[in-house]
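Re: the request from the purification team.
They wanted to know what the chain is likely to look like in 3D before they choose a buffer screen. I agreed to run a prediction and write the result into the notebook, where they can find it.
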Amino acid sequence: MDNQRIIGQTKSVGYQVGVRRTFPISQEQAWALITTEEGLNSWLGEVTHIILQPGQTYHSKAGTGEIRIVKPLQQLRLTWQKEEWSKPSTVQVRIISKDSNKTTISFHQEHLSNQTVREEMKLYWEKVLDGIKERALNT
């Protein structure tokens, strides 16, 4: 019974969650939906100031963190710690181009403290993708 893990629990990174959705948009449009001021506010919470470069820290109404990896049109990796969390999580956003008019946006978060936080963040990321879908269809 020792090796039976709860959904989302890993040996090395605590709890994790991933959600993804494919949109009928280009890779460039997907990147813009994630990295423009409006885009960042939609998933990081109202960001007061952010520079998308490794080593830069940021503050938003939802939490604080540090930018770790920026690969334009492909990937963002950053730490994110909500005020009530005892330690930061790691968020990875990937933009995966299927063809010129089909792109997947993926959010993956690890180092979550427990199953409750994992479920909370799963719902959060699904809601974020719903918002992105709405904005993508209006572009």
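For the purification team: The chain has one domain: 16-137.
Please add any questions underneath this entry.
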